[in-house]
Amino acid sequence: GARDEISKGQSTFMVEMSETAGILNNLSERSLVVLDEIGRGTSTYDGLSLAWAVAEHLQKHRVKTLFATHFHELTALAEEYPGVKNYNVEVKEWGKEIVFLHRIIPGGTDDSYGIYVAKLAGIPKEVIKRSQQILRKLELQNDLEQKMRSRTSTGTQLPLFLEREVPEDPVVEGIKTLKEIEEEMANLDLNFLTPLTALNKIAEWKEKIKNAKQT
C-alpha cells in the first residue's frame, strides 16, 4: 500500500484506522476534521460500514467536517441528519469523452469515472475494454438484486433457486435485454459496419425489445 508502516508491521488500512481513531478520540467543539476516502483499504461492505459510522459519529458531536468519499451510499446521510450537505465535483460528458471542470457544486452523485481515469493514465486498451464489460455485468447483477429485494419487501415470495425466477419476471427480462443490447453496441466496430448490417442490427434489437415487452 501507499502508506504501509513496514517497520511497525502496519498495513495502509491499519495506519488509516489509527489516524482516524486519533481524530475521533480527541474531538472538541473547535475541531475541523478533513477525511479522505475512509474505509478504502478493506472490503467494500466493511469500508462502507466504517465510513458511515464515522460520519454519524462526527455529526452526533456537531464537528465541522469535510468528508470525501466514493461510497455513494453515504449521500443518504443528508436526508437523515440536519446539517449534512452533499457536494460533488462537476464534470461534463461529451459523447465518450469526459471533461473534469474542477468545480464543486451542491448535490450528490451516483457516477464514478475510475475506468475513464485509468484510460487517461495509459492502462492498455484491452484492459479498459474488459473492465467496461465486467462493469456492465456487475451493474446488471446489482439491478437484478435490487429488483429481487423490492419483490421481497412487498411480500412476494422468492423461489428456492433465483435462476428460475428471473426469466418469469418481465421487468428483469427487460433490464437484461437492454444491458445485452448496450454491450453489443459498445462492441461494434464502426469501421467495418456497412449500412445494411447497421439496419439489420437495429431490426434485431427492436425485435428483442418487442419480445421482452411481451414476456
UniProtKB/TrEMBL annotation:
Q: Provide the alphabetized UniProt keywords.
A: ATP-binding, DNA-binding, Nucleotide-binding
The answer to whether the entry has keyword ATP-binding is yes
Annotated ranges, domain DNA mismatch repair proteins mutS family: 31-47
Coiled-coil ranges per UniProt? none
> Which InterPro entries has this protein been placed in?
DNA_mismatch_repair_MutS_C, MutS, P-loop_NTPase
Report the GO molecular function annotations.
ATP binding; ATP-dependent DNA damage sensor activity; mismatched DNA binding
What would be one Gene Ontology cellular-component term for the protein? cytosol
Known Pfam families for this protein? MutS_V
- Please list the GO biological process terms of this entry: mismatch repair
Q: What is this protein called?
A: DNA mismatch repair protein MutS
